[in-house]
C-alpha cells in the first residue's frame, strides 16, 4: 500500500457535492493518504478551509486566485487571502499564474494578479502553486526576479517538454505531473520530459475532477477524475522514468512533505 500525497485536487468542485466522503474513502483505500485541496478563488479557498477543518490530518489546501479569475483580485481579495494563509492548513499560495490559452481574464489583469500573489507568497513564506498555459516564457520572466524571495514552488499540472522543464528546474521549482502523461494524443512532450525530472523535484497530482487518465480501464461512467486514480498516474510516471513504483512513491511523498511543510507520517 502506498502513502501518496495528491498535491492538487479540486475537491470543492460541485461534482463532489453528493459523494465527497465516499471520494475520500476511495482515495484512502487506494493509498492516497493526504490531499492538498486547490484554491482557485477566495470562495473556493474558504470552502477548502472548511474541508480541512473537517478532516485535519488528511486534507490541506492552497489559497489563491486562478488566472481565469484574475480580474477579481483587488485589495480586499488580497487581504482575504492573507487571512486564510495564516491558517496552518494552507500550505501554498495559488493556484496563480498565467493562462493565455483561454484568456478568461485580460492579460494585464493576469500579470497584476500573479505579481500580487508572488509578493504575498514572499511575505507569508509559503510556496507558490503555479498555473501556466501558453504563457511559459512570460511566466518564467516574471518568476525569475522573485524566485530568491520565495519559499519554493511547483509548476502545477506540468504539460511541457524538456525545454520548458529545464527552465523550471533552473528556477529550482518542483514539477507536478498529472494524468496528462496518460494521454496518447496530447502527452508526447510530457512523456519525453518525465525521465529528465529529478526524483527530488517530482510531485504527483490528479487535478480532479479534471484530467481523467485516458488509458484508465475501466473508466468511470461519470468521466470524473478522483484522487483514487493517483496510483495509476504514478505507475505511468515510474515506467517512463525507469524506476520502481515504490521508489517514485516514496520520493514524491517526501518531496511534498518537504515543500509544503507537512509532517512526515
Descriptive report:
The protein is of the alpha/beta class and 265 residues long. It has one domain (4-260): Metal-dependent hydrolases (TIM Barrel). The chain contains nine helices and eight strands. It has helices at 20-29, 42-54, 75-85, 107-124, 136-143, 162-170, 188-193, 230-241, 245-260, and strands spanning 4-9, 32-37, 59-63, 90-99, 128-133, 153-155, 174-177, 202-204. Helix 2 (42-54) packs parallel to helix 3 and helix 8 (230-241) crosses helix 9 (245-260). It is globular, with a radius of gyration of 17 Å. The chain starts with a strand and ends in a 5-residue tail after the last helix. The model has no long low-confidence stretch (mean pLDDT 97).
CATH architecture: Alpha-Beta Barrel
Beta-strand percent range = 15-25%
What is the number of helical segments per DSSP (H or I, 4+ residues)?
9
Major beta-sheet overview: 8 strands, parallel
Shape: globular
Q: What is the straight-line distance between the termini?
A: 14 Å
Strand order of the largest sheet: 1-2-3-4-5-6-7-8
CATH superfamily: Metal-dependent hydrolases
Question: What's the β-strand tally?
Answer: 8
Integer average pLDDT: 97
Q: What percentage of residues falls in helices of 4 or more residues?
A: 25-40%
Number of domains: 1
Give the SSE map.
Blueprint: E1 4-9, H1 20-29, E2 32-37, H2 42-54, E3 59-63, H3 75-85, E4 90-99, H4 107-124, E5 128-133, H5 136-143, E6 153-155, H6 162-170, E7 174-177, H7 188-193, E8 202-204, H8 230-241, H9 245-260
Parallel strand pairs: 1-2, 2-3, 3-4, 4-5, 5-6, 6-7, 7-8
Helix pairs in contact: 2-3, 8-9
Amino acid at each position: 500500500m502506498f502513502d501518496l500525497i495528491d498535491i492538487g485536487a479540486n475537491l470543492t468542485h460541485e461534482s463532489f457535492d453528493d459523494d465527497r466522503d465516499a471520494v475520500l474513502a476511495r482515495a484512502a483505500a487506494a493509498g492516497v493518504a493526504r490531499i492538498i485541496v486547490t484554491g482557485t478563488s477566495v470562495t473556493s479557498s474558504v470552502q477548502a478551509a472548511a474541508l480541512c477543518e473537517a478532516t485535519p490530518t488528511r486534507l490541506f489546501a492552497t489559497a489563491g486566485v486562478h488566472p481565469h479569475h484574475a480580474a477579481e483580485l483587488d485589495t480586499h481579495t488580497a487581504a482575504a487571502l492573507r487571512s486564510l494563509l495564516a491558517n496552518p492548513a494552507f500550505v501554498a499560495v495559488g493556484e496563480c499564474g498565467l493562462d493565455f490559452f483561454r484568456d478568461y481574464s485580460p492579460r494585464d489583469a493576469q500579470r497584476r494578479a500573479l505579481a500580487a500573489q508572488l509578493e504575498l507568497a514572499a511575505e507569508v513564506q509559503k510556496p507558490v502553486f503555479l498555473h501556466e498555459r501558453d504563457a511559459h516564457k512570460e511566466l518564467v520572466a516574471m518568476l525569475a526576479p522573485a524566485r530568491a524571495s520565495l519559499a519554493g514552488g511547483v509548476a502545477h499540472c506540468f504539460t511541457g517538454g524538456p525545454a520548458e522543464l529545464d527552465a523550471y528546474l533552473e528556477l529550482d521549482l518542483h514539477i507536478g505531473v498529472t494524468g496528462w502523461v496518460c494521454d496518447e494524443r496530447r502527452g508526447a512532450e510530457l512523456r519525453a520530459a518525465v525521465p529528465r525530472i529529478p526524483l527530488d523535484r517530482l510531485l504527483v497530482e490528479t487535478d480532479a475532477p479534471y484530467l481523467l487518465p485516458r488509458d484508465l480501464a475501466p473508466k468511470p461512467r461519470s468521466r470524473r477524475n478522483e484522487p483514487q486514480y493517483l496510483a495509476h498516474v504514478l505507475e505511468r510516471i515510474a515506467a517512463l522514468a525507469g524506476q520502481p513504483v515504490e521508489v517514485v512513491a516514496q520520493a514524491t511523498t517526501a518531496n511534498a512533505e518537504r515543500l509544503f511543510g507537512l509532517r512526515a507520517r
